[in-house]
Amino acid sequence: MKTSTKKTTISHTNKRKLPPKKNNIDKVPVNEVKEMFMAWFKKHNSVGQIMTKQDVVQNILTKLNAKQNDALEKAMNELKKEQFIEVKEDGVTLVLTQKGSQCV
After folding, report:
1. Ranges of residues in the chain whose predicted pLDDT is under 50
2. Domains and CATH numbers, the chain
3. Which of 6, 32, 66, 98 has the fewest CB atoms lying closer than 10 Å?
């Protein structure tokens, strides 16, 4: 009885495809942007304090570097999720919540 020593090769078509990598935003720029928002609210600390579009532009957007610019939306979403701020219908006007006021 002769045993076969045939080698089996795996073709490239049989390889399992990995899911696309998520574009993970570095936490440092996100935290820096969150701190910018909270510093502004700390300076103007009162529940219901409104950060207008003009305030956002003057105090946040003009001070962002490239990495922070990419992190802006994520930072706003995290502050909203943590219930520190509410975002008005225009998507730019922010309101400090009771919880946010206690944290600043």
Report:
1. none
2. 25-103 (1.10.10)
3. 6
Tokens of 21: 């990598």
Per DSSP, the residues of the chain read -----PPP---GGGSPPPPPPP-PPPHHHHHHHHHHHHHHHHHT--TT-EE-HHHHHHHTGGG--HHHHHHHHHHHHHHHHTTSEEE-TTSS-EEE-HHHHHH-
CA dist., res. 100 & res. 83, Å (int):
7
Phi, psi of 95 (to 5 degrees): -125, 130
Judge if pTM exceeds 0.85.
no
